[in-house]
Write a structure and sequence with these properties.
Number of helices: 21
Bound molecules: zinc ion
Shape: globular
Distance between the termini: 93 Å
Length: about 600
């Protein structure tokens, strides 16, 4: 073994050098086109987007690092999964079970597209890992619960098993190692690769699903913290055979307070996990995959995995980082420059129409004196809203200005599906001068998925005539960008329902300090109840305040760019003065 010293020297040299060229597989369609999904599981369906945007916007990587996956071929899928099972994936009910959503919520082709892109990414990442003799990352994958004849736990196809079988088919004979560091055990992967020689599966999880034949499994106690976790990892790495190719599931669900994981790691502990595994696999071709993650910071785990591989650093992700906000703001600036090219064409067309007498001068329509219909549609396209709606089955989009009954300017987005045109987004806004300054005031905002259905999983909230689109975050960002573009002081609106106020509570506050105090008291006193129960109780008059029936007060909330804040003493005084009770029947009116 005379090669050993050279090997070690080489590893240390590699460790000091940044891996600037780390290849990362990513596709915007890694986002699952399920609208009710994130709220229930705590999963952020935009995780891959947030990580890619963070890495690009903070200049950790350049577009040259990114690779675009191709959908895995069914020929590759068929080496792992049974024909009956693959056929069952054409039915919404099968996928609905795997993802824990209603069958109505499943656009089969698009969900399968996301799954197949993820699997294609893992296989391509394995090929490139072998070619470069180093690490690669796929921002979607590690579907370890999918077995040969069934899917489970958000895993419809087993990307690792598919990649291993495809490589074997092409003649790869080296030792394969699957280092599964997700908080759940690799039951599906072990079942798929049961008879595969030269394959070792090692797992550190926080929950047992029974003995898994063929896996080196360590189940850690609930809430296991950084230090004992790292000790167990060290032991697992000590038992790992020398790999010719490694797959690492750098699970994002090991953080404390994860919705579905049971471990108790910190972000720093997870980074140390990745650094330790990366060092053990130095100079080994390795494919790194995200696995699960049902926590607001799960995207930071995955971004941290990339930093561990590229820079070998424990430096934390900036806790205030908001990749969507940063990304959208930059796109908006670009859009401002693009306007000379694209949407101004629309203005020119209007000019022509006016000259030809097809349209009277003076009726040129602009939203807020700024946006043309085409510039709005172009914006929705550039910010990814239209492509998401396309995956939900809508097409032939149309933006139209309309009349608002209550003042303000109305703009609507329509889309075609099932031979009919549907209203998807409906917005009524105006500039309004308030004591806080000149604001963009939202009279009305509806985001509707009219082809979806309400169910126990997606209860109808007061004011909803159709389930939502899952785009609230994007639309809020776009409204904020509009505020900046128009040079306004902020956004304002009067929430008609408790759940609306609750959902924006992080950014918005009530203008009136006493009203803010009552809102905070209401949140405090109903914290033990689901949001749907509280908002329905308020709408049904079943809430009491200080012994009297309480009616929801739809007063103004604002988000201000430079918020002087409210008087905290006034807020606190009202918060302490009032107490709320949610009854199963309305409190009796005062005698
Ligand atoms: Zn998991």
């Amino acid at each position: 073994m005379t090669a050993a010293p050279t090997h070690v020297a080489q590893s240390w040299r590699h460790w000091r050098v940044w891996d600037r060229h780390l290849p990362i597989w990513y596709d915007p369609e890694y986002r699952l086109p399920l609208t009710a999904f994130g709220k229930r599981t705590g999963l952020e369906p935009r995780r891959a987007d947030l990580v890619a945007w963070y890495l690009l916007e903070w200049r950790w990587i350049t577009p040259a690092n990114l690779r675009t996956p191709a959908r895995i071929r069914y020929e590759d899928v068929a080496r792992v999964h049974t024909a009956d099972y693959v056929e069952s994936l054409t039915r919404p009910a099968t996928l609905a079970r795997v993802f824990g959503v209603d069958a109505w919520d499943v656009p089969v082709d698009e969900v399968m597209r996301t799954m197949r892109l993820g699997c294609g990414g893992t296989l391509a990442a394995a090929h490139e890992a072998l070619a470069r003799h180093g690490a690669t990352v796929n921002l979607l994958g590690g579907f370890h619960h999918a077995g040969p004849g069934h899917g489970a736990g958000l895993c419809a196809l087993n990307d690792i098993a598919i990649a291993v079988r495809a490589l074997r088919h092409d003649g790869f004979e080296g030792q394969v190692v699957v280092l599964d560091l997700d908080a759940h055990p690799p039951d599906g992967t072990a079942a798929c690769l049961r008879d595969e020689p030269g394959t070792w599966i090692g797992s550190l999880s926080g929950v047992s699903s029974g003995q898994i034949p063929g896996a080196d499994e360590t189940v850690l106690p609930p809430g296991c913290s950084d230090e004992p976790y790292l000790v167990a990892l060290e032991a697992l790495l000590g038992r790992m055979p020398a790999p010719a190719l490694a797959f690492v599931i750098a699970g994002g669900d090991v953080l404390a307070d994860d919705h579905l994981g049971h471990l108790g790691l910190t972000l720093d502990g997870v980074r140390r996990r990745d650094l330790r595994a990366a060092r053990a696999l130095l100079t080994v071709p390795s494919v790194w995959l995200p696995g699960g993650g049902y926590h607001g910071q799960a995207w930071q785990v995955l971004a941290g995995t990339v930093l561990a591989l590229m820079r070998h650093t424990r430096r934390p992700i900036n806790p205030g980082a908001d990749p969507m906000n940063t990304r959208f703001a930059r796109l908006a600036r670009r859009l401002g420059q693009d306007r000379r090219v694209a949407p101004s064409a629309d203005l020119d067309f209007e000019d022509v129409e006016i000259e030809l007498g097809m349209r009277a001068r003076g009726v040129r329509r602009l939203l807020l004196d700024t946006y043309t219909v085409d510039s709005l549609e172009y914006g929705l396209f550039r910010f990814g809203v239209l492509s998401f709606l396309e995956r939900r089955g809508y097409g032939q989009f149309r933006v139209a200005f309309g009349t608002a009954t209550s003042g303000g300017e109305r703009v609507s987005l329509y889309g075609h599906a099932d031979n009919a045109e549907h209203l998807l987004i409906d917005l009524v806004v105006e500039r309004r001068t308030m004591e806080a300054g000149e604001l963009l005031y939202v009279h009305w905002l509806a985001m509707r998925d009219p082809r979806a259905r309400f169910s126990e999983r997606r209860p109808q909230l007061p004011g909803q005539d159709a389930p939502g689109l899952g785009l609230a975050r994007e639309v809020t960002e776009l409204l904020q960008l509009t505020v900046q573009r128009l040079g306004l002081a902020g956004l304002g609106f009067a929430p008609a329902w408790y759940h609306t106020a609750y959902m924006v509570r992080g950014r918005f506050r009530f203008l009136d300090p006493a009203r803010q105090g009552r809102f905070e008291a209401l949140m405090r006193d109903t914290a033990h109840l689901p949001l749907t129960v509280v908002t329905q109780a308020l709408a049904g008059g079943a809430v009491g305040m200080n012994g009297q029936p309480y009616t929801w007060e739809a007063s103004d909330m604002v988000f201000l760019i430079d918020d002087p804040g409210v008087d905290p003493e006034q807020v606190a005084a009202e918060r302490e003065r009032v107490g709320f009770v949610v009854g199963d029947r309305p409190p009796s009116p005062p005698a």
